[in-house]
Amino acid sequence: MGRSCNLLFALVVFILLHTSLSTLPNIITDEASLLAFKSHISSSDPNNILATNWSSSTPVCSWIGITCTSRHHRVAALDISSMQLHGTIPPHLGNLSFLVSLNISNNRFHGNLPQELAHLQRLKLIDVTSNNFTGAIPSFLSLLVDLHILRLSSNQFSGNIPSSLSNLTKLEVLKIQGNLLKGEIPRELGDLHYMTVLNLDSNHLTGSIPPSIYNITTMRIIGLTNNNLTGELPTTICDHLPNLEGLYLSRNYLDGVIPPTLEKCRKLQILSLSINEFSGTVPRELANLTSLTGLYLGGQHLGGM
Ligand SMILES: *[C@@H]1O[C@H](CO)[C@@H](O)[C@H](O)[C@H]1NC(C)=O
Ligand SMILES: *[C@@H]1O[C@H](CO)[C@@H](O)[C@H](O)[C@H]1NC(C)=O
Ligand SMILES: *[C@@H]1O[C@H](CO)[C@@H](O)[C@H](O)[C@H]1NC(C)=O
Ligand SMILES: *[C@@H]1O[C@H](CO)[C@@H](O)[C@H](O)[C@H]1NC(C)=O
Ligand SMILES: *[C@@H]1O[C@H](CO)[C@@H](O)[C@H](O)[C@H]1NC(C)=O
Ligand SMILES: *[C@@H]1O[C@H](CO)[C@@H](O)[C@H](O)[C@H]1NC(C)=O
Ligand SMILES: *[C@@H]1O[C@H](CO)[C@@H](O)[C@H](O)[C@H]1NC(C)=O
Ligand SMILES: *[C@@H]1O[C@H](CO)[C@@H](O)[C@H](O)[C@H]1NC(C)=O
To answer: Which Gene Ontology MF annotations are present (predicted)?
Structure first.
């Protein structure tokens, strides 16, 4: 009697466990997401790599571009960069709930990044560089609070830079150069205290550079070249930038004098200020920058060094 009761109990536990597990997302969900993605990729995949490789007859974790977690056997990384793929991103990608790294750079994907990607709370890296995405920079990106690297460069993103990106407090790399962004640089970006690279080159940004940007002590590279930025550089520019290696501000409408205090950015290697409206003389103090390998000041009326 006791024994058959135990058996019955075990059976009930087994059935409960089994049904609850099969309704939870698992590698089958991941496979379905990726196959849905594959069906949105047009046949311009010239070598038909995905068509032959992403097949139900082989385990998902051995598909090209897929890396799985060792513990749960779930898809952790999707890297299909530089495969000449053409298509759109379906909402199903938002079901890859263990995804940490998404790299679809250097293809020809177009359309929008679907809202469902906001479900991917483990994402640390998004790289969609060099595609043909359009529309605003999605505001849902600010919900992906584990992001360390966000690269959206060389697409056709338009509108303003959302100030909500300052929610991504772990962000180290933010690259959005080569898009169609307009408006001002949100001063809230200065709240990103771990940022090392900020590149907003070649957009249509206006207004002055928010001084909060110069407050990020981890910063190594600031790239704002080829926009429509105005205003002066503050004399305090280098007070909190001990790690700055590159300051790229060419091709804007910046004016005033070149601050001699730039010498306080001790590690500066590249200082690019050409084709602006700076006046006065080139400060002697720049000669103190012993790491400097590139100094670009041409295209404006400056006195000698
Ligand atoms: C898919 O590509 C991977 C990586 O190149 C390779 O190891 C695997 O054998 C391929 N599988 C099939 C079915 O082509
Ligand atoms: C995956 O996502 C799609 C669209 O977001 C949804 O309709 C579908 O039910 C999901 N599939 C699974 C297996 O979770
Ligand atoms: C994404 O892939 C490209 C091409 O393979 C590579 O150059 C790039 O560094 C990758 N992105 C990130 C953030 O690792
Ligand atoms: C990108 O999209 C635009 C408009 O949607 C189109 O005219 C252009 O040909 C596309 N470029 C590429 C490389 O697909
Ligand atoms: C900022 O992140 C928090 C979680 O840390 C989230 O609840 C909130 O909605 C986010 N705000 C925006 C504007 O995205
Ligand atoms: C700067 O503004 C002018 C005038 O509005 C415009 O013609 C030009 O294309 C803009 N340049 C950039 C890089 O946005
Ligand atoms: C820079 O940081 C200091 C100290 O954290 C703060 O008092 C100051 O307001 C900040 N400046 C800007 C322009 O954000
Ligand atoms: C920096 O340069 C100025 C002017 O050339 C010089 O007087 C000064 O001693 C230098 N400072 C340091 C810390 O090297």
So the answer is: ATP binding
What is the tens place of the pLDDT at every residue in 197-210? Answer: 999 999 999 999 99
CA distance 134 to 281: 43
pLDDT in tens, 89-112: 999 999 999 999 999 999 999 999
The overall pTM is greater than 0.85:
yes
Ligand 7 in reach of 234 Cβ (< 6 A) = no
188 CA distance to ligand 7 middle (Å): 11
DSSP labels for 92-106?
Answer: GGGG-TT--EEE--S
Nearest protein Cα to ligand 5, atom 10: 143
**CB 217 near ligand 7, within 6 Å:** no
Measured in Å, residue 105 CA sits from the centre of ligand 5 at 26
Quote the CA–CA distance of 258 and 280 in Å, as a whole number. Answer: 8
- Does 105 sit in the ligand 3 pocket, CB within 6 Å? yes
d(CA 107, CA 104): 7
pLDDT of residue 19: 46
Mean pLDDT (the chain, rounded): 91
Alpha-carbon distances, residue 272 vs 70, 224, 246, 284, 297 (angstroms): 46, 10, 8, 16, 6
Residue bearing tokens 């007070």:
239
Which pLDDT belongs to residue 48?
75
130 lines ligand 6 (CB under 6 A): no
pLDDT at position 24: 63
Q: Which ligand 7 atom sits nearest the alpha carbon of residue 215?
A: 1
Q: Quote the ligand 4 centre to 132 CA distance (angstroms).
A: 6
Is residue 122 classed exposed, middle or buried when 0-12, 13-18 and 19+ CB atoms within 10 A define those classes? middle
Domain 32-296 grouped into CATH 3.40.50.11480? no
Instruction: Evaluate whether 216 touches 192 at the Cβ level (below 8 Å).
Output: yes
Question: Does residue 16 carry a pLDDT above 60?
Answer: no
Q: Among all chains, which residue has been given the structure tokens 């090209």?
A: 64
